[in-house]
Amino acid sequence: MIKYIDFIKSETAKRYKIDNNPKTRAIIENILHTLKSMDDIIKNVFDNKKIIITSGFRCFFLNKVIKGSSNSQHKKGQAIDFSISGLSPKEICDKIQKSFYSYDQLILCKNFVHISFNSLSILERKENLIKTSKGYIKVNSF
């Protein structure tokens, strides 16, 4: 189970003395939805394997410091970057894509996976992307 505190903690925020706590009820609700969605996937797709969170919630200032996208879903509490010991990012993406779980975006990155959710599942795009040095490539499968 992913802890709320682990989703909002950031070494970068700590280093720069940035308060990375969410400020609105909507963001907190998004975070809770993201955590529940990830917990379901980790439990049912990955047999409760331990995940390593590389990025969860990012406040506006933290996102700016790390040069995140201006429209990043991390700022809304809707995205998580993670890895799982013993599995490559491609293996993780394959398993999630083949599961019945809904998501907004699933992005295969070199060293981690990015997944985002929308609390209104009807709005989820189930978009699959691969991040390259030149940008993102939309794919049907990994």
Defining traits:
globular, 6-stranded mixed β-sheet, 142 residues, Muramoyl-pentapeptide Carboxypeptidase, domain 2, alpha+beta
Count of helical segments?
5
**What's the mean pLDDT score?**
96
Q: Which structural class best describes the helix and strand composition?
A: alpha+beta
Number of domains: 1
SSE string, helices as H and strands as E: HHHEHEHEEEE
For this structure, the CATH topology is Muramoyl-pentapeptide Carboxypeptidase, domain 2
> How many strand segments?
6
Strand order of the largest sheet: 1-2-4-3-5-6
Radius of gyration: 14 Å
- Please describe the biggest sheet, giving its number of strands, its sense, and whether it closes into a barrel: 6 strands, mixed
Low-confidence stretches: none
* CATH top level class name: Alpha Beta
Shape: globular
User: What helical percentage do the residues reach?
Assistant: 25-40%
Strand content: 15-25%
The CATH architecture: 2-Layer Sandwich
Terminal CA distance: 26 Å
Q: What can you tell me about this protein's structure?
A:
The chain has a single domain (4-139), classed as Muramoyl-pentapeptide Carboxypeptidase, domain 2, CATH 3.30.1380. The model has no long low-confidence stretch (mean pLDDT 96). The protein is α+β, with helices and mostly antiparallel strands. Strand 5 (127-132) and strand 6 (135-139) form a beta hairpin. It is globular, with a radius of gyration of 14 Å. Helices cover 33% and strands 21% of the residues.
